[in-house]
Amino acid sequence: MITIKLKNEELNNSNNNNNESDDSGSISAADDDDDETIFKYEEILYVLNLFSSIKFAHPIERIASLSSWVNRADIQPTNQLVDEILNQNKTIPVFKNYKFWSLLIKKLILRGLFNEAISAIETSGFKDSLDPENSTFYLIITDLISILKSYDFIRFSENLELFIEWKKMCVLLRDNFWRIGNNSNDNNTQDSGILEILNQIYEILNILSGSSNYILDNSSTWYESLLSHYLYSMPSIDLIREYLLVSRNRFPPDQTSIWENTCIDILEGNYLTVLTSLEYLDKPIATFLGVLLEAKGLLKPYDDLDRNINDSEYDLTDDVDIDELNVVIALGFKNYSQLVLVY
């Protein structure tokens, strides 16, 4: 009789064969549970990242924090796209690839990934292919790199006047863009393929200048659009609901995504609804967040509502609006968080 050892257990080969399907079923079920758990806590992480950015991060960290929130929740551009653009066509320099500008650089800029965009452009081969003394195309690319390098997450977060000065440079470069190209004798700028690329760079300059139409036309989701508006229109927390409104109108959220809809509730200040949504995913985390919100005073606006509900007879057999019911449920977390604070 042949036996094998697995994790210090002796398994009879015949028993192993008989139980093979059961074991594989158990492993499959365990894997499914693990995947579901990972997915659940990823959703929670995306929500908490936004909460941290909006309500708990230092103001000078907000631009970087919002960019991190978007780029962790939805990784773009994909590795497959990057590989396709950078590695597949070796016959021409990367900077002459239309997709390099339209799909890669534009996406990196929309998401505030400046270092990645700068690195990609600087290693795209334009320095080896273009004459810096006689090529307008070369000057346009280097001007774009300079603009990207001068975006300062920290200084712009704390000083909007500095941001406005930076934005003026973007607008000036954009407005002079076609005049420079049309007055040039550079053969590169007359090539039809290069003209298409110049169109893409012009769109990038419009995005950097804060044009809402260009941001909306080139974004893929409401949160990408919201981030881009915040980065380039004006990095002010006071305007974030306005950015959310225009972004949602163009890109409705995925109604099956808990994290997307919960993040919208955060941005709209619906904190009790946020707690209700998180409770569905993880009750202890929802309770802990309730404690933090209470300590920060973000639940004070609900105090009068809480008293009104406690002082009145609330009959759930009556016709109740679902939003009202959510408030009643979420107030339970608020009250529970107050109990937790009592030692």
TrEMBL record:
GO terms for cellular component: nuclear membrane; nuclear pore outer ring. InterPro entries: Nucleoporin_Nup85. It comes from the Eukaryota. Its main location: nucleus. The keyword Protein biosynthesis does not apply. Residues 11-29 have a biased composition (Low complexity). Residues 11-30 are annotated as: Disordered. One of its GO terms (molecular function) is structural constituent of nuclear pore. It is found in: Nucleus, Nuclear pore complex. Pfam families: Nucleopor_Nup85. Keywords: Membrane, mRNA transport, Nuclear pore complex, Nucleus, Protein transport, Translocation, Transport. One of its GO terms (biological process) is mRNA export from nucleus. Functions as a component of the nuclear pore complex (NPC). Component of the nuclear pore complex (NPC). Belongs to the nucleoporin Nup85 family. This is Nuclear pore complex protein Nup85. It comes from Candida boidinii (Yeast).
